[in-house]
Amino acid sequence: MSRNISKPLVYIYIISLILHLAVFSFFLLKQGEIGGLFVVDASDYVGEAKNIADGHGFSVTPEAPYIPNATIGPLYPLYLSIFYRFTGHFWPAVLVQNIIASFIPILVFLIGSYFILDRRILWGAALFSAIEPNLLYYTSVVASEGVFIVLLLLSMLAFIRFLKTDKKSWLIVSALILGLTVLSRIAIQYLVGFLAFWLLVYFIKKKYSTKVIIQNLAILLLVYFAFISPWMIRNWRTFGHTELATTGWIDLYTRTGSSVRALVEGTSYGESYHRQLQDLVDQGIIKDADEREMYGFQFQPLLKAQTLTLFREHPEELVKVSLISFISILTQDNTYVFLHQAGVLPAVPGNVSPSLILFQKGIRGVVATMLTLARNQAYLVIYAGRILWAILTVLFAVGVYALWKAKESRAFISFLMLVIFYVWGISIPLTASISARYRTPIIPIMSLFIVVGAWYLAYRIFSRYVSPRSQ
């Protein structure tokens, strides 16, 4: 890498590191380790990490008997446990995580350099990744994003390098890191199947021989499964199942099912969620209305049957809920969460979804609700963030269009879009519980297209358009 390229990247890394350490230090010093760094689902990661460090295995149970757990990937709690074992605290692990996550802008630059030759666009995308609030927040606290996103980007970078060089060693590296990525966030587990199909189509279009196609697909799949197989074997020995996690049908029953029910019954998501759990209590399946009771593999067939029955009975509501989810994953913004935790904004009773109100009360209901909520400064931030991300999504689409025009870049673009659509797809079942957190893994990649889109439109508006690629 030439000096005139590396120097700005060093500056961007320093900016990213300073911002990460500022967020980390602010929450740690002001609110302490538990109040400042333990957010969202941190309790599961922390509880399991403590048990690993104390020799009780992968369990979130705080006391004996330590019931084995399979709701989260093993990598992040294992990472946390190493630091907890030697220091008795989790903040050192988060500190190192911040240092590692600060490299995300560099990885964005390197990935983009394979199909964008204008360094200004690459620097802009890297800078965007360094300062984007949602990405910054969730990689600065106890959350798997700080490890997961870096691994995902490294795997993508190695895969793109394989496409560029045709060297099998890069495919091996990509498959290995993808295995690690899955063990840090189980939801990404099926990406390898889509990736294998994409690679098959790519090889056929490139007229590779059957032998080479089989060799490369075998490398991808065998290396990947060899890496995740220890966790599959553990689950088989412990639970009698080879699935990597137990949360799939839980999410569909509690999140998607609750949202469908909310539309059918005209209630709020929260009310429908509690009714879904209460139904299981009434059937004697669980004792308390707590979804944690359903974390075992034995509950999955029952949840699957009840969820599919609900979907078959209300297909129209399911389509509407899926549309709401897709809009939400594109536009949700959690800057409010960050500012509220920092003490800048007051708490609000809930993040009201305009899309849900639209289907329940129509356009007048949306306008009336939005005007009422706009009197609260917290809601102003929430909906200003959604408007901003709606604009950024448009720029993203424009960027995809602009880059797709260059035929030599289409392989890279289609690969990146595969990853983006996969993340969008696995987020849709979360429906009304979707937050911007579920978009953070792809914000770094989206930043490339967003900056290209802004560049493209700026030159079109001023009638001086020059392709973002070198001519």
**Can you write the helix and strand succession as a string?**
HHHHHHHHHHHHHHHHHHHH
Q: How much is the average pLDDT? A: 89
- The geometry reads as globular
Q: How much is the radius of gyration in Å?
A: 23 Å
| Sheet with most strands | none
N-C termini distance: 21 Å
Secondary structure category? mainly alpha
Count of alpha and pi helical runs: 20
Proportion of β residues?
A: under 5%
Number of strands: 0
Unreliable residue runs: none
Helix content: over 70%
Protein name: Glycosyltransferase family 39 protein
GO molecular function: pentosyltransferase activity
Keywords: Cell membrane, Glycosyltransferase, Membrane, Transferase, Transmembrane, Transmembrane helix
InterPro entries: LipidA_mod_glycosyltrf_83 (IPR050297), RgtA/B/C-like (IPR038731)
Describe the structure.
This protein is mostly helical and 471 residues long. Among the domains are: 145-184 and 190-243, no CATH class; 246-313, no CATH class. It is 72% helix and 0% strand. The radius of gyration is 23 Å and the shape is globular. The two termini are 21 Å apart.
Can you summarize this structure?
The chain has helices at 3-37, 42-53, 75-87, 91-101, 104-112, 119-131, 133-138, 145-165, 168-184, 191-205, 210-239, 248-265, 269-282, 300-313, 315-331, 335-341, 354-373, 377-404, 410-427, 443-461. The chain has 471 residues and is an all-alpha fold.
